[in-house]
């Protein structure tokens, strides 16, 4: 029984020590900063808005499907913009480009966070990373 109590205390103290170690780890701090920046950024909203702006100009679902299946999206828009409610091919291509750029920005930020997280996972347990992150966010 005594050994069980010592084991529990050892495990609890090692978890406390591990968490305090992770909180001062430069890699964890970089992860936390990137995570908070992504949460406070407008990238997701910007993408949703650009997506809505672009696809709302397709009045016919068949044309939207044809566009989706096309290999060269810009070429399709240049040739078929009159089948949409875009005023010109330039407007159509610009709207499409805005949507693609917004998605790329969102994907880049997400990928950057994932790279740092993967490095952290080499040093710490996934539950410790997540718990520490959530505790620090709540404390702020």
Summarize the structure.
With 140 residues, this protein is an all-alpha fold.
What does this structure look like?
The chain is mainly α and 140 residues long. It has helices at residues 2-23, 26-40, 43-55, 61-69, 73-80, 89-123, 126-139. Helix 2 (26-40) packs antiparallel against helix 6, helix 3 packs antiparallel against helix 6 and helix 5 runs antiparallel to helix 6 (89-123).
* Unreliable stretches covering 5 or more consecutive residues: none
Q: List the helices and strands in order.
A: HHHHHHH
Largest sheet: none
**Helix fraction?**
over 70%
Let me know the average pLDDT.
87
Radius of gyration: 24 Å
User: Strand portion, in percent?
Assistant: under 5%
Structural class: mainly alpha
Question: How many runs of DSSP E, i.e. beta strands?
Answer: 0
Shape: elongated
Count of alpha/pi helices: 7
Distance between the termini: 40 Å
Task: Fill in the keyword field for this structure.
0% strand, 140 residues, 7 helices, elongated, mainly alpha
Summarize the topology.
Blueprint: H1 2-23, H2 26-40, H3 43-55, H4 61-69, H5 73-80, H6 89-123, H7 126-139
């Amino acid at each position: 029984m005594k050994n069980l109590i010592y084991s529990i205390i050892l495990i609890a103290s090692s978890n406390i020590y591990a968490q305090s170690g992770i909180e001062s780890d430069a890699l964890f701090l970089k992860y936390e900063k990137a995570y908070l920046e992504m949460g406070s950024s407008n990238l997701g909203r910007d993408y949703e808005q650009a997506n809505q702006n672009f696809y709302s100009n397709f009045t016919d679902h068949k044309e939207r499907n044809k566009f989706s299946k096309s290999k060269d999206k810009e070429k399709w828009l240049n040739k078929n913009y009159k089948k949409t409610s875009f005023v010109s091919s330039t407007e159509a291509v610009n709207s499409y480009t805005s949507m693609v750029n917004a998605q790329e920005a969102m994907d880049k930020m997400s990928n950057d966070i994932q790279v740092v997280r993967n490095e952290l996972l080499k040093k710490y347990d996934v539950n410790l990373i997540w718990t520490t992150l959530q505790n620090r966010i709540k404390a702020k």
